[in-house]
Amino acid sequence: MIPKEILRKVRQIHIRTKHMVSDVFAGEYHSVFKGQGMEFQEVREYIPGDEIRTIDWNVTARMGHPFVKKFTEERELTVMLLVDISASNTFGSTSQLKKDLAAEIAAVLAFSAITNNDRVGLILFSDEIEAYIPPKKGVAHVLRVIREVLYFKPGRTGTRIQPALDFLNHVTTRKTVTFLISDFITSEPLKRPLGITARKHDLISIIVGDKREQSWPSAGLVDWIDAETGRRLLVDTSDAGTRRLFGTTQAQRRGELLNLFRTAGIDVIEANAGEPYEREFIKFFRMRERRLKA
After folding, report:
1. How far apart are CA 57 and CA 3, in angstroms?
2. What are residue 203's phi and psi, to 5 degrees?
3. Alpha-carbon distance 125 to 129, whole Å?
4. Averaged over 93-112, what is the pLDDT?
5. Closest CA to 118 of 182, 29, 201
6. What is the pLDDT of residues 147-163, one digit of tens each?
7. Which three-class secondary structure state does DSSP give residue 128?
8. Distances 91 to 98, 186, 276 between C-alpha atoms, Å
9. Are the beta carbons of 228 and 200 closer than 8 angstroms?
């Protein structure tokens, strides 16, 4: 039985993200994510000005005068959410943990998708595939997706992204719009698996973080515990050199990650727990729209 606290969180996320989708992202998602091709609608008589290449020569031969094939844009998309539920996502320096932010972002994207009549699927992963929910439509399905992101108890603590990308490529035969939601705290080589997936799907990476992962205040001796490995480290955060080294290391890691995505041609959205992220998403949607127009 799902705890009342989780159900309350699901309701809160539902209310907040429904408002965001209808008031903030209205039209943005629809204008950016279009169907993956054209589908046949009907055959009709040729009208002067129609393109010659659309003529259906079989029907034309049978009827004795020209007919053309009419196509419409294939509107429906499949949106896949790949959500990292490894132990590092249980961190949070505010009232919101990284895993809660990931669930909220997943909800925004899922509600945007079903508002657009698209299907939504979910892959939860740690250093292995933890759960898979096949793509479907409907509010009840989206609420289940949010519930799973919040409530699912992973069997493992580590992070490996390649198995999730490989699984996606195996279970989906057609191109999808895929949002990879993770803190990307992993030492695995990602260049090749990201490149393969980005060629097959429209892959967007969403980096979920916390401001304290980029800089740490002077708080004296801090006993750090790596949630994924259990390793402990006692750090004197009152030392300015230590804080500076910490900040430099994190900035370098972020720069390498962003460069990796840029090289693979993958768009990136960054969001921090406990901070507004709407502006980053609007910026992403508008950048995508400009690119489409160009």
Report:
1. 63
2. -100, 125
3. 5
4. 93
5. 29
6. 999 999 999 999 999 99
7. coil
8. 6, 15, 18
9. no
**Nearest residue to 77 via CA among 163, 179, 196:** 179
Q: How far apart are CA 169 and CA 123, in angstroms?
A: 12
Contacting residues for 61 by C-beta, under 8 A, at least 6 apart: none
Identify the sign of the CA torsion 141, 146, 149, 150: negative
Which two three-digit tokens encode residue 128? 């292995």
Q: What is the dihedral of CA 142, 287, 72, 18, to 10 degrees?
A: 20
Buried/exposed code over 28-44 (b: 16+ C-beta within 10 A; e: otherwise): bbbebbeebeeeeeebe
Write down the H helix ranges in the chain.
Answer: 4-23, 28-32, 57-63, 98-115, 139-151, 162-171, 191-200, 240-264, 278-293
Tokens of 103: 């669930």
Contact predicate 204/177, CB 8 Å: yes
Q: Which domains does the chain have, with CATH numbers?
A: 4-32+75-293 (3.40.50.410), 37-74 (no CATH)
Residue 9 · residue 100 · CB < 8 Å: yes
Phi then psi dihedrals of residue 21, to 5 deg: -65, -45
Closest CA to 12 of 96, 124, 133: 96
Q: Tokens 């108890």 correspond to what residue? A: 153
Q: How many CB atoms lie within 10 A of CB 10?
A: 20
What average pLDDT does range 169-198 have in this prediction? 95
Report the chain's mean pLDDT, rounded to a whole number.
89
Residue 52: how many other CB atoms lie within 10 Å: 8
